[in-house]
Amino acid sequence: MVTLMDYPVPLRPLSAAGELKMPFSEPVKYCILGISVTLLLLALGILAWQAFRCCTQTHTTYTRQDTVNRDQLYSDEKLTATGKYSGAPSTKVEDVSTEVHRLSRCLSQASLPSSGSSQAEGDFGQQANIKKVDGSLRFSVYYDQLQSRLVVTVLQVEGLLEPNETCSLQPFVKLRLMWAGSVGVGVESCKDKEGEEMSPVLWTVLQEWRTRVVKGSCNPLFGDQFSCILQQDKDELHHINLRMEVRDFDKFSRHTVLGEVRVPLGQLNISYPLELQEDLQIPQKDLVGEVLLSLKFLPTSQRLEVGLLKVRTVLTEIYSDAALYARISVQCNQCRLRYQKTSVVARCLVTVFNEVLMFSLPEFPLEQCKIMVSVYETRITRKSTKHLMGQLTLGSEDKHWNLMMRSVRQPIAKWHGLLI
């Protein structure tokens, strides 16, 4: 018996592409083809744009870095180049450490002041270890007892020395009429830059004046006259000092103090015009208030909490719209972080803020950081009017800073002197 088996017929390849049939009409086929071509062109465009963007950013970054750091890093690049061909296994490690040191040094050197910095920020570094002062100031003082009017005339500054041959002096004189209001109770003792203890008397600024700027002269002539009327409770001249600072003008408001003259009016007979000539002395600070600060350091998150609790000043005249606010900034490794402002609080004898500001610190040792507080007086009705009352600087050499480091994560409060 013979069994018949059916074998499938072997498939032969399609002879032509036309034998492949698609169950779509012609318009649908053309639509699918158009969409495919559009997507392909879009993908190619995105790819080309990303490649162009990558090349452009890389070129700009290297060009900017070379332009800024070419002069500052020239000496270090030569040292690095000598080590690249040594062939030692630790060559890469040495290059990385050199690069880190070089970049950190450049960041500290490149922290230049902005053009919009205020006079308050300029006063922190303007009196850097002045050991010798040259020159004298000639002026006249007169007090009219009938009108209770004090008249001060700045005549001439003589004997100033130019700092170098490339730049010339642009001197002017800033005058402050200081009145001894009360005795500080919160601050134990204030020291000047020479380490000598200052009197804890709280001073207040009655008037501020400023002469015109004389360009390119070491013996400038001024002839500017200023006057003010002293009220009944301040006509005792033995409580009033006249402080005159000779400064070198700077367009960024960072004026350099060349020297100062202090005149206790109570020790002079100024019932008639009295002309004097005094030698310039090393500038000193005056205690104009007290600030209660709270500090807390959070080492895990590398944050510093600065709390402004109270500000104590002397009230000379009572204004209903007078208010105070503070501007606090932190400086690390000669680089100033972004400052923060407190809210505006109505001024009284002891102004209470009770505000805490948070600062995120960079990866630098905390000993290289400083806290700078500037207190301003403003008028609520005049938003553009502000007046610097005083400043304070707090760093690793202060007792408050050491107490904060010994008790981390705990707020430590202490009174500090507000100087001007």
Write the SSE topology.
Blueprint: H1 26-69, H2 74-84, H3 91-109, H4 119-122, E1 136-144, E2 149-158, E3 171-183, E4 190-191, E5 197-198, E6 201-210, E7 221-229, E8 240-248, E9 256-264, E10 274-279, E11 287-298, E12 303-313, E13 322-332, E14 335-336, E15 340-341, E16 345-346, E17 350-360, E18 369-379, E19 386-394, H5 399-406, E20 412-419
Antiparallel strand pairs: 1-2, 1-10, 2-7, 3-6, 3-8, 4-5, 8-9, 11-12, 11-20, 12-17, 13-14, 13-15, 13-16, 13-18, 18-19
Explained architecture:
The protein is an alpha+beta fold. Among the domains are: 136-182 and 200-279, Sandwich (Immunoglobulin-like), CATH 2.60.40.150; 287-419, Immunoglobulin-like (Sandwich). The chain is built from five helices and 20 strands. It has helices spanning 26-69, 74-84, 91-109, 119-122, 399-406, and strands at 136-144, 149-158, 171-183, 190-191, 197-198, 201-210, 221-229, 240-248, 256-264, 274-279, 287-298, 303-313, 322-332, 335-336, 340-341, 345-346, 350-360, 369-379, 386-394, 412-419. The strands form five sheets. Strands 13, 14, 15, 16, 18 and 19 form a six-stranded antiparallel sheet that branches. β8 (240-248) and β9 form a beta hairpin. The longest helix is centred in the N-terminal third of the chain and has 44 residues, at 26-69. The protein is elongated, with a radius of gyration of 36 Å. The N and C termini lie far apart (126 Å). Residues 133-278, 287-416 form the C2 domain. InterPro entries: C2_dom, C2_domain_sf. This is C2 domain-containing protein. It comes from Seriola lalandi dorsalis. Belongs to the synaptotagmin family.
